[in-house]
From TrEMBL, chain A:
Cross-referenced PANTHER family: BIOPOLYMER TRANSPORT PROTEIN EXBD-RELATED (PTHR30558:SF3), EXBD MEMBRANE COMPONENT OF PMF-DRIVEN MACROMOLECULE IMPORT SYSTEM (PTHR30558)
InterPro entries: ExbD
Entry's localization field: Cell membrane
GO biological process, one term: protein transport
Protein name: Biopolymer transporter ExbD
Organism this protein belongs to: Algoriphagus kandeliae
One MF term in the entry's GO annotations: transmembrane transporter activity
Family named by the database record: Belongs to the ExbD/TolR family.
Keyword field: Cell membrane, Membrane, Protein transport, Transmembrane, Transmembrane helix, Transport
GO cellular component, one term: plasma membrane
Topology in membrane: Single-pass membrane protein; Single-pass type II membrane protein
UniProtKB/TrEMBL annotation, chain B:
Compartment list: Cell membrane
Listed GO biological process terms: protein transport
Membrane topology term: Single-pass membrane protein; Single-pass type II membrane protein
Keywords: Cell membrane, Membrane, Protein transport, Transmembrane, Transmembrane helix, Transport
Keyword Signal part of the UniProt annotation: no
Superkingdom of the source species: Bacteria
Official protein name in the record: Biopolymer transporter ExbD
Keyword Protein biosynthesis: no
Family: Belongs to the ExbD/TolR family.
One cellular-component annotation, GO: plasma membrane
């Protein structure tokens, strides 16, 4: 009988003092994994869908180039423009930009520079081919056509 | 006075700490955009050297699978008009695996393939000689939409990845996610590709009608 009495002594409330720690751990996880966008994108970006996506192993080798219709059409016109880093540029400046990006990489990786082309769906092939010609000129021949996964319908 | 002080609880109430942390957590959850570096990899041809023009390659017409896309996003596949790209991946697969006139090496390659792939070889003399010779050529117009181009390119890649994956007995998705981070993965990738180069040629877009 005495055994039953003992039970009533246990406290019924769950200790919640460790809860903030758990939440903080979650918070730190998200803070660490977050990549804040350090640049403003000045062109429209509706990324097309594809199925055969590949992921690159080394993210440091990727440089991004954005192509699309400028968001501010009053200032930049409605023709597709190229954006790299935080400013719009002409296709003729791409070689220079690629060389700058390549110089920022460690010596051993320079040949492996990959350009991720984030191109808006509505852009025509003309401007893209112009950009690719410049990339060939700059000898940055690995290109990644950025796209998002497509749900396959059966 | 002194007595009333001692009655006060000594510890700080930490119960609302969780709420504060939750608020911060939700803020980060909402503002986070996880950067995605996924896409379709392509390697551009080297730049043209005016002193050293590329050698003229006379490939037989039967070894080239031509896909033309015009400014209206219509397709012309091997001389046949079609409105959409459905089923193109299967056709490319059959074209690559045709083995119309294999030489000695190609015959050895053919014998090394699993039975399911060997069964797809039609040995049509009008189609590609063997996978080493087969080239898929995609030609666009300057007015072709990027979306259509990517769709066609995607399907061409899919055809090759299907073949590679079937060869090493994997799912296409599984094969594609191999990154070659260790030797076993690298060996698997090489085994899939061996003898069947991914020959997708992207021609310069023409300027007519743009």
């Amino acid at each position: 009988m005495a055994k039953f009495k003992k039970k009533t002594k246990t406290s019924e409330s769950i200790p919640t003092s460790a809860l903030p720690d758990i939440i903080f751990m979650l918070l730190f996880f998200f803070m660490v994994t977050t990549v804040l966008r350090e640049q403003e994108i000045l062109v429209e970006q509706k990324i097309p869908q594809a199925t055969q996506l590949q992921k690159l192993q080394k993210k440091t080798l990727i440089s991004y180039i954005y192509i699309g219709k400028p968001k501010n059409t009053a200032l930049y016109g409605s023709e597709p423009r190229v954006q790299a880093n935080d400013a719009l540029m002409n296709t003729t400046d791409i070689v220079q930009w690629v060389n700058r990006e390549r110089d920022a990489l460690p010596e051993a990786d320079r040949g492996m520079i990959t350009i991720s082309m984030k191109v808006d769906k509505d852009v025509k092939m003309g401007p893209i081919s112009d950009v690719q010609t410049e990339l060939r000129e700059a000898d940055a021949r690995r290109v990644l056509y950025a796209s998002v996964g497509k749900v396959v319908r059966n | 006075m002194a007595k009333s002080k001692s009655r006060m609880s000594q510890e700080v109430n930490a119960g609302s700490m969780a709420d504060i942390a939750f608020l911060l957590l939700i803020f980060f959850l909402v503002t986070t955009t996880i950067a995605s570096d996924k896409g379709i990899l392509n390697v551009l041809p080297p730049k043209l050297d005016p002193n050293n023009p590329p050698p003229e390659i006379d490939k037989n017409e039967r070894n080239i699978f031509t896909i033309l896309v015009n400014a209206n996003d219509d397709l012309l596949v091997e001389g046949e008009y079609r409105e959409n790209a459905d089923g193109l991946d299967e056709e490319i697969k059959l074209f690559v695996l045709n083995f119309g006139a294999p030489d000695e090496d190609a015959q050895a390659l053919f014998n090394s393939l699993p039975a399911s792939l060997r069964a797809q070889a039609k040995r049509d003399p009008e189609s590609s000689d063997h996978p080493g010779e087969a080239v898929v050529s995609i030609k666009t117009n300057r007015g072709t939409s990027y979306e259509k181009f990517l769709e066609v390119f995607d399907l061409a890649k899919k055809a090759y990845f299907d073949i590679y994956a079937e060869r090493v007995n994997l799912d296409t998705d599984e094969y594609r996610t191999l990154t070659g981070k260790d030797e076993a993965e690298e060996a698997l990738i090489d085994k899939g590709k061996e003898g069947i180069p991914m020959a997708i040629s992207i021609a310069e877009p023409d300027k007519i009608g743009s």
